[in-house]
Specification:
- It is built from 6 helices and 6 strands, in the order E-E-E-H-E-E-H-E-H-H-H-H.
- Strands 1, 2, 3, 4, 5 and 6 form a 6-stranded antiparallel sheet that branches.
- Helix 2 runs parallel beside helix 3 and helix 5 packs antiparallel against helix 6.
- It is rod-shaped, with a radius of gyration of 51 Å.
- The N and C termini lie far apart (142 Å).
- The C terminus is likely disordered.
Length: 298
């Protein structure tokens, strides 16, 4: 029979302990306790275990040694039979099977009557129940922590959306004003400015609503920009037509300038010959007309 260890009387004061219900078999009773942080000695000193005949323990803690495979960490393991031969090894196997890191202790009160191998089943079941209760509590704690982080993230996202939507409203107002100015320039008529929009209190809205409004504002800005691009194209076309009209007007003045230059040239020829332009003969030898007068008349 394994040698029973002595334990100090002091007990830890911590809520980080999860216990099983009591199992009674004839004159023996069993209770298990699990903790992810406490040592075996700390659990064995629990006040409710002080009168137990055996306080069987096993532990499985993350090792300080680094594993060559990060996905497979190393563990420091061990067990204490505390006078109940082979019982500590049973608890160690439970820890390994459940893949938890921590310490489990099962206390047995022996009533003087041997109950045989069934005691090992009770020891293991007490340990499993204590570990199961910790897993439930740990899962709930993780969910609560995740919920808190989500609330913090949602608040940050909401604040950012409120700021962005407020700025986009200002941008839309400025773009609509510019759009009206372009329409007025294209039509040549004065147009009434856009009606100012009432400020929206985005703080009172939920995150989902703000996300939908954010997409709607993007669509509004895109639509206004498309209208402005179309107006810019129309304005460029209008400016091009005006330039073509001016060019046509300049071309109609060219023949008159040519006739004036021709008259000046004939006048110079007449002066050189000692006659006026009327003294110039045509191809048949007849005196010609005063072309300068025709030019002037033209």
């Amino acid at each position: 029979m394994a040698q029973k260890r002595s334990h100090p009387d002091s007990a830890p004061d911590t809520p980080d302990i999860f216990k099983s219900v009591q199992i009674v078999e004839q004159t023996s009773s069993f209770i298990g306790a699990f903790s992810p942080t406490l040592t075996a000695a700390a659990l064995q000193r629990l006040p409710e275990f002080r009168t137990a005949t055996h306080r069987i323990a096993a532990w499985r803690k993350l090792s300080r040694q680094k594993s060559l495979t990060p996905s497979k960490p190393l563990f420091d393991t061990g067990h204490d039979d505390d006078g109940e031969s082979w019982a500590g090894g049973r608890l160690a196997r439970v820890l390994n099977d459940t893949q938890v890191a921590g310490t489990v202790v099962v206390a047995r009160w022996y009533g003087g009557q041997n109950i045989g191998p069934i005691r090992f089943a009770h020891i293991e079941n007490c340990a499993k129940e204590a570990i199961w209760k910790w897993k439930i509590a740990n899962s709930e704690a993780e969910k609560e922590e995740a919920s808190k982080r989500q609330r913090v993230d949602d608040e940050a996202a909401k604040k950012q959306l409120v700021d962005e939507l407020t700025q986009r409203d200002r941008n839309i107002a400025a773009l609509r004003k510019l759009l009206v100015e372009k329409k007025a320039k294209l039509s040549g008529e004065d147009m009434a400015p856009p009606t100012p929009q009432k400020a929206i209190d985005y703080e009172k809205m939920g995150l989902d609503v703000l996300k939908r409004l954010d997409k709607a504002r993007d669509a509004t800005i895109a639509a206004i920009l498309r209208q402005m691009d179309k107006l810019d194209e129309d304005l460029k076309l209008l400016d091009g037509l005006a330039d073509d009209a001016l060019d046509d007007l300049d071309e109609t003045n060219v023949p008159g300038d040519a006739q004036a230059k021709e008259a000046d040239a004939l006048s110079d020829v007449g002066k050189a010959a000692g006659t006026g332009t009327e003294g110039i003969k045509d191809d048949a030898g007849h005196p010609g007309r005063d072309i300068s007068k025709d030019v002037q008349a033209g």
